[in-house]
């Protein structure tokens, strides 16, 4: 059994803080000397009969009523609140914090709440027009039309605010609340929200950062009711230390808002606008999102890909090119609108029905999760499952209910939601893969008539309460199964599965490493194993430990949003093989320093809900540079643009990476590192063939198959 030490790092698990359900059954009245607890006056419950008698003014022996304790109950309205926080002693142009707080009511008693802080300065709302200093419209809204800016939570007129990604500061995870208290009649009542704050680690470039596994600090909001409904002001504390003032204001019954734009390739079909009462907007509304949907109409093939055949499987790069050509595309707007682009193209049967293609760390614009694609002429091949029923072998364009479900599934990926097989298991919900939904309905139901056009409760919780960067387009990369990696103690390591690696003993600094992998059944009973050892599906996970003990996980440049992980029995004595190049991943270079490194490969999959693993490790010595040439080549190649060029096999998309590779070859074409990079980086884009009709392309393919068969 492999070591379990630092297992989460070794399998690349991503940590995301997320608010959980707060059990309010223990929220009992609590009397304090300060009387700093609050109710919502318009929702005060009736005092018990015993209290009514005690408070009878005809009883002369009671103290004056204003000094008698009263029961205060706060019933926070569900939805989104704007949030304002000003640290103590902040100067007029100092840094404040604004954001949103989301409160979810769970039944009659329990709640769940979370929020996000963004940095803000008062001059962010100021502009100069004609030599006169004015406030922006956003600034006037934040000032509640008062004529002066304010630190209080903004009155946005029912609109959920959106803030710039670079200004994101921290996630607020609600941990407990005190909403029922005793307070003095002569003081305002208040309520308390307890929060764990997780600061965001911004990357040097881009917006795909990370959260640490432990909170930065625990804070407490003590909020008082005001004369305005659903508007509360108060103080923030860390322990007994006053941090500053805080306020929240209810603005919407939704938790978040976003925009979806659909464009369809000219001459082909788009997903249905509605199926019964279900639409893109209504499906997301059921999850608590205010999603505005725009049909942007049809678009032609843009010039760079005008020669492709649209009725075959599309590459991620071509889908990305199509997305960036549609009217209204503007990545810079992602700081003011959470927009996802959905492009509908025909493709062909067996292409996967759709994909969230914008998951590459190697995108030319390096902006994650802007777009998804849906394939109208792909569909439901009967060979895939026996449970497609009436939709078997039909194209999506002919099965509206299933088409809308599949298209919404891909949009869900763009908001960073993953397959439910990686979480609670397949069910009849949007984020379960289509074959999984059909299999579930095979037990009780009919495909497609009984498809449930809704997200399940797990995904609804993620959409409502994951941190903003995790779900908003253009921020954190797509997680895939990395966000749901199992605990080491939950993984079964069959002794009858033997994983072996073939790697060089020594490499030069800056040199990609070829790794050959073999998984063999050395037992006497067959075991289900993945048919493909794939990095992009995270079945294959690779890490290295450098001479200082630092672990680097090779997070794939392209994590497949819809991986099809097929298992087959591996018979005794048989093996499956795979190979890959270990060089650069989203977390950096694997061998960035000289010395002895431990390379580890872990194969991780699931059988009937049980995580199964096999692992192997090999030492690799990275040679110290001994000549100026060694230093110059390494300095030229150990650059993220070169890493992306190698990982993507599309070096031509990274101009500076190509320049560095060519300069390294100029320094020494025979140098092992330069030679290996030249081998694995495809420097020139393949030529796009002249446009042909789909019928002509099909005839050509048939002739080629026939010719191949005669060989």
Distance between the termini: 48 Å
User: What is the CA-atom radius of gyration, in angstroms?
Assistant: 29 Å
Question: Numbering strands along the chain, what is their spatial order in the largest sheet?
Answer: 2-3-4-7-9-11-12-13
Percent helix: 10-25%
Q: Count the beta strands.
A: 30
What's the story with the biggest beta sheet? 8 strands, antiparallel, barrel
Rough shape?
Answer: globular
Task: Report a brief summary of the structure.
The chain is an alpha+beta fold and about 700 residues long. It contains 14 helices and 30 strands. Mean pLDDT is about 85; it is low at about 30-65, about 135-150 and about 690-710.
Structural overview:
- This protein is of the alpha+beta class and 711 residues long.
- It folds into 3 domains: 24-252, no CATH class; 259-463, Collagenase (Catalytic Domain); 488-624, Immunoglobulin-like, CATH 2.60.40.
- Helix content is 18%, strand content 30%.
- Strands 2-3-4-7-9-11-12-13 form an 8-stranded antiparallel barrel. It has a 5-stranded mixed β-sheet with strand order 15-14-16-18-17, sandwiched between helices.
- Strand 2 (79-87) and strand 3 form a beta hairpin.
């Amino acid at each position: 059994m492999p070591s379990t030490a630092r297992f989460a790092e070794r399998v690349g698990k991503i940590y995301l803080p997320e608010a959980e359900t707060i059990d309010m059954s223990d929220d009992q009245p609590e009397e304090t000397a300060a009387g700093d607890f609050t109710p919502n006056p318009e929702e005060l419950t009736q005092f018990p009969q015993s209290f009514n008698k005690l408070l009878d003014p005809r009883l002369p022996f009671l103290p004056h009523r204003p000094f008698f304790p009263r029961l205060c109950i706060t019933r926070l309205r569900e939805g989104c609140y704007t949030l304002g926080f000003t640290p103590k002693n902040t100067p007029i142009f100092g840094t404040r914090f604004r954001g949103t707080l989301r409160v979810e009511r769970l039944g009659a008693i329990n709640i769940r709440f979370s929020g996000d802080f963004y940095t803000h300065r008062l001059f962010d709302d100021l502009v100069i027009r004609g030599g006169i200093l004015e406030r922006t419209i956003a600034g006037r809204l934040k000032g509640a039309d008062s004529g002066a800016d304010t630190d209080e939570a903004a009155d946005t007129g029912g609109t959920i605010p959106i803030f710039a990604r670079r200004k994101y500061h921290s996630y607020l995870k609600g941990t407990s609340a005190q909403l029922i208290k005793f307070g003095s009649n002569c003081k305002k009542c208040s309520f308390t929200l307890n929060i764990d704050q997780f600061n965001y680690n911004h990357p040097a470039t881009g917006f795909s950062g990370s959260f640490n596994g432990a909170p930065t600090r625990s804070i407490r909001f003590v909020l008082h009711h005001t004369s305005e409904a659903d508007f509360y002001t108060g103080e923030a504390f860390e322990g007994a230390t006053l941090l500053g003032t805080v306020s929240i204001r209810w603005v919407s019954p939704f938790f978040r808002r976003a925009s979806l734009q659909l464009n369809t390739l000219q001459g082909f079909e788009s997903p249905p606008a509605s199926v019964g009462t279900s639409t893109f907007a209504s499906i997301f509304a059921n999850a608590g999102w205010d999603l505005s949907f725009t049909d942007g109409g049809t678009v032609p093939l843009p010039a760079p890909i005008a020669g492709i055949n649209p009725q075959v499987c599309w590459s991620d790069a071509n889908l990305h090119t199509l997305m960036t050509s549609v009217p209204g595309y503007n990545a810079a707007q992602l700081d003011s609108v959470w927009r996802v682009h959905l492009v509908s193209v025909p493709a062909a049967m067996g292409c996967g029905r759709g994909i969230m293609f914008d998951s590459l760390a190697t995108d030319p614009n390096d902006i994650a999760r802007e777009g998804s694609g849906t394939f109208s002429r792909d569909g439901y091949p009967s060979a895939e499952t026996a449970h497609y029923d009436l939709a078997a072998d039909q194209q999506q364009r002919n099965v509206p209910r299933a088409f809308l479900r599949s298209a919404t599934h891909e949009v869900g990926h763009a908001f960073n939601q993953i397959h439910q097989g990686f979480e609670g298991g397949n069910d009849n919900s949007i984020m379960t893969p289509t074959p999984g939904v059909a299999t579930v309905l095979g037990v009780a139901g009919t495909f497609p008539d009984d498809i449930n056009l809704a997200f399940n409760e797990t995904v609804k919780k993620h959409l409502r309460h994951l941190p903003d960067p995790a779900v908003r387009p253009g921020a954190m990369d797509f997680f895939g199964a990395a966000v749901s990696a199992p605990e080491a103690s939950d993984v079964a390591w069959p002794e009858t599965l033997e994983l072996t690696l073939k790697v060089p003993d020594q490499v030069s600094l800056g040199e990609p490493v070829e790794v050959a992998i073999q998984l063999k059944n050395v037992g006497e009973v067959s075991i289900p194993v993945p048919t493909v050892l794939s990095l992009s599906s995270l079945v294959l996970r690779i890490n290295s430990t450098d001479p200082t003990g630092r672990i680097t996980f090779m997070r794939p440049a392209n994590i497949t949003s819809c991986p099809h992980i097929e298992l087959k029995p591996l018979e005794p004595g048989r093996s499956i093989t795979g190979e890959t190049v270990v060089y650069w991943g989203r977390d950096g270079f694997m061998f960035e320093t000289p010395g002895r490194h431990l390379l580890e490969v872990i194969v991780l999959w699931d059988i009937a809900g049980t995580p199964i693993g096999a692992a192997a490790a090999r030492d690799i010595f990275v040679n110290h540079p001994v000549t100026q040439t060694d230093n110059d080549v390494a300095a030229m190649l150990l650059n993220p643009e070169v890493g992306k060029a190698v990982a993507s096999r599309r070096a031509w998309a990274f101009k500076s990476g190509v320049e560095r590779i060519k300069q390294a070859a100029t320094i020494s074409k025979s140098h092992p590192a330069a030679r290996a990079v030249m081998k694995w980086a495809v420097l020139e884009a393949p030529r796009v063939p002249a446009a042909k009709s789909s019928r002509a392309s099909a005839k050509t393919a048939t002739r080629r198959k026939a010719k191949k068969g005669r060989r």
